[in-house]
Amino acid sequence: MKELLEEFINYLSVERGLSKNTISSYRTDLISFLNYLDSKGLDNAEKIKRDNITSYLLHLKDKGLSGNSVSRALVAIKMFYRFLLQEHFIKDNVVGVLESPKLIRPLPNVLNLPEVEKLLAAPDIRDWIGVRDKAALELMYATGMRVSEMVDLPTSTINLEMGFIKCKGKGDKERMVPIGTQAKNSISRYLEKVRPTLLKNNTDNHLFLSRLGKKVSRQSFWKMIKKYAKKARIKKEITPHTLRHSFATHLLEHGADLRVVQEMLGHSDIATTQIYTHINKERLKSIHKQFHPRP
Questions:
Q1: Which residue in the list 61, 134, 146, 184 is annotated as catalytic?
Q2: Does the predicted TM-score (pTM) go above 0.70?
Q3: Is 170 considered catalytic here?
Q4: Which among 268, 67, 271, 64 has a CA at the least distance from the CA of 175?
Q5: 146 catalytic residue (yes or no)
Q6: Which of 40, 47, 105, 170 is catalytic?
Q7: CA nearest neighbour of 5 among 40, 39, 41, 43
Q8: How far apart are CA 182 and CA 118, in angstroms?
Q9: Is 278 a catalytic residue?
Q10: Mean pLDDT, each 10-residue run in order, the chain (295 residues)
Q11: 218 is known as an active-site residue
C-alpha cells in the first residue's frame, strides 16, 4: 500500500500539478490512514472494506480531530482510491459513496443509578486498597475524568476545601470540575490514612499511588473497575470510560445544561457531548413504549 501511495504522490505532482503544500497534506493524511490499516493487519487494497474506512474516520474523531480535519482525511482517501481504480490497482471503489461524516457513533454503555451505587460501595474500606480504590471510583464518577487524566493527576490540583479539582485534558487544556461531598470524604480519607504510608520515602506527587509508591497505571485502574463490577454483580461490560459516560448521562437526565457538561468533560466540540442526549432519547422511547397505552 505504501508503494501505491508513492505512485499516487508522483501522480499528484507530475500529472495534476498540485502545490507542494497540498501534496504534503495528502501525504500526511494518507500515511496516517495506512498506518491505521497496518495496525489492523490490512496491507492489501483489495481487502479493505468500507467498514474499515468508517472505523478509521471514527478513530480520528475519537482522537479529538475536528469535523473539518476528518472530512479532509476522507477527501484524501477518496482521491487515493479514485487513482487506484483509474490505474487498475483495484476493481471496486469502496469509498465512492461515502459522504463526509456526520459520523454515527455507537451509544456508549452507561450504568443506571442503582448500579453506580453498588459499584461505589464495592471496595472494602477496612483495607488500604479499598480506601484508595473507593476514592478513585468516587472521583471518576464525581468528575467524569478520563482514566488518562486520573493517573496523571497531582495532589496539588485538588482543593477539597473549595470542592474543585483542576484537570488537564487533551492538548494540555485545563478545566475546573466540582466534586461532591461523598467524593471529597473518600479522597480526604485516602489522603490522611493511606497515601502517606504508600509514599514512604518517595517524592511522587501523583494522587493515586501503588503499593510501591509509584503512580497507578491505566491498566491497574481498568482491572480495578472490572474487579469491583464483578463484586457488585453488574452484568454490563464496564471500562473506566463507563463511569465518564454515566457521569454525563446522569447530569443531563437531571437537567444539567449541555454546554456545562461539555465544559466539565473537556470536549472541544459540543457535537461530541451531544451523543449523551441521544442516550436520553433512547431511554425516553423505551419508557414511552413500555408505559404508553398506544405504543
A1: 146
A2: no
A3: yes
A4: 268
A5: yes
A6: 170
A7: 43
A8: 14
A9: no
A10: 87 82 89 90 82 85 80 87 86 70 61 94 95 95 90 92 87 86 94 92 88 90 93 89 89 85 82 71 64 60
A11: no
